[in-house]
Prior knowledge:
This protein is of the alpha+beta class and 234 residues long. Helix content is 19%, strand content 29%. The protein has a single domain, classed as Nucleoside Triphosphate Pyrophosphohydrolase, CATH 3.90.79.
Amino acid sequence: MGNAESPPAKKPPQPIRDAATLVLWRRRAGKLEVLMGERHGASAFMPNRYVFPGGRLDLNDYRIRPAAPLYPVSVTRLGRCKGTGPRKGLALALAAIRETFEESGLRIAGPAMPAAKPAPPGWRTFCTGGLAPDPSALLYICRAITPPGRPRRFDARFFAAPAEVAAGELVPSAELDKLSWVTQADTEGLPLPGITQYVIANLEHWLSPAQAADPAQRVPFHHMLRGERQVDWE
């Protein structure tokens, strides 16, 4: 028998977790501003990068009853999103709201529905005062899967909402620090993920009345295909 060494075992593929991101925007002196923060240096995912609030989809995001339905344009767009049905699409929008509250202190909420069940874990602080998440102003605008080789990979859906629907004061969190409202010019020179740069560059166009009100508008989907970057339209 030979003594040839066995080939090294292949590493199992990284799991791709569902996630949601919220781009809160406002206009000041005619300029479009978005809410961003810096991820802490100890973060396993994108340390020291400037990003929008967001995070992983949680099982309890399916269990919370919203104060109002998801924006109908987003419902239609998400319906074309591969692997995303109506229930999951709503849960993703609610995850974006929850993560924004956890990371920035801003709450997008309305009165809870009559006879609504008690809030599930992860939502109880948010729902204090008889409130529930309100996704009626969230516009679905983009999708991206983290490229292979990163410590963590996410299938992230990006939503946008006007700042006036959010209440509260900005409060830095254990995940997101240096929260501020910035213009596209302000982000020049900042360490931004490529997809974040893409969203900022296209946000003005996506928010134009004709685009934002059109459910047939296709949504860009960034991912890798056979080692090459790919943009599909869903």
